[in-house]
Amino acid sequence: MSSIRVIELCIAVALVLYFLAFFIARKRGKWWYFHIWVAVVAFVLDAYGTYVMWTMAADVKWDFHTISSIVALALFSIQAGLGIFRRKKLHVLFAKWIFLPTWVVSFLSGFVYLF
Length: 115
Known about the structure:
By secondary structure, this protein is mainly α. It has one domain (3-114). The chain is built from four helices and no strands. The longest helix has 27 residues, at 88-114.
């Protein structure tokens, strides 16, 4: 499988899992552990796809897509910290208005970058 396909597969599955984690979180109660598991798996796939993208480039270009991908990974760390420290209101607001929109912009810019 080519590196481009690996990146596309990792990032597409990460997108689905991030949204799944977001919607699972809306179900209160016993689903919180599944929310965490899905979000962490999405992050790992996202980080791996970004790593493959980074190492595949002969000369790393600091374009919009690369910067937004790295920013989205950093924002996940903030998002996880808010969840770990049980700042529920900030965790939800940050996910809804900062992390997910930034990640979707990064995702879409990757497709624009490919074509």
